[in-house]
Amino acid sequence: MKTIVLLSLLVFSMELTAQTALDWSDLERGITWRKSDTKKAYPGFLEADFSTKLTDLEGKEVSLIGFLLVLDGNQSVYMLSKNPMASCFFCGNGGPETISEIAFAQKTSFSMDDLITVTGILRLNRDDPTRCYYLIEQAEAFGI
Fold first, then answer.
1. Which residues, 6 or more positions from 45, have their beta carbon under 8 angstroms from its beta carbon?
2. What average pLDDT score do residues 98-119 get?
3. Is 103 exposed, middle or buried, given 0-12, 13-18 or 19+ CB atoms closer than 10 A?
4. How far is residue 66's CA from residue 97's CA, in Å, rounded to a whole number?
5. Has residue 115 been placed in a domain?
6. Which candidate in 4, 34, 37, 45 could, as Cys together with 129 as Cys, close a disulfide (CB 3.0–4.6 Å)?
7. 20: burial class by Cβ within 10 Å (0-12, 13-18, 19+)?
8. Which residues contact 1 (CB under 8 A, 6 or more apart)?
């Protein structure tokens, strides 16, 4: 009986800490845009509206597989892309919904175009044109 109780507690605690696996199609289908109010700081910027599924996941731990993009020489600015650098959003393959800004909890040892799984806290950017629409904070990276 004691073993059953301990196993039940272990399974329950694993469910509490398990992250939700996202797919790029979840991010692509989970966003629509509207032009911002002309009275705002960035008139004409496309503000994001997110699906209920993504809104419910905001602030929760998620995982996403993609290609690591290193955007500065100091290796401190990162994005995760649906596509490798040669065909990513910046080169015309896809839209802004095919990248996510990544803030690692600790400096990563992975390099440009490594295919990795990133796990962290999902944040949704509705109105800041200086950031990606999707952000993953306190992130950890795992090789595939």
1. 35, 36, 127, 129
2. 94
3. middle
4. 13
5. yes
6. 45
7. middle
8. none
Q: Could you give the C-alpha distances from 84 to 65, 74, 95, 99, in angstroms and in order?
A: 12, 20, 14, 11
Domain membership flag for residue 24: yes
Q: Per DSSP, what are the bridge partners of residue 32?
A: 49
Question: 78: buried, middle or exposed (CB in 10 Å: 19+, 13-18, 0-12)?
Answer: buried
- Residue 51 to residue 49: CA distance in whole angstroms: 7
Average pLDDT over the chain reads 84
Q: For residue 99, tell me if it sits in a domain.
A: yes
Tens-place pLDDT, residues 24-82: 999 999 999 887 766 766 767 778 899 999 999 999 999 999 999 998 777 778 999 99
CATH number of the domain at 99, please: 2.40.50.870
Q: Containing domain of residue 135, as a range?
A: 19-143
Q: Which of 66, 121, 118, 74 is nearest to 97 (CA)?
A: 66
Domain count, the chain: 1
**Residue 132, domain member (yes or no):** yes
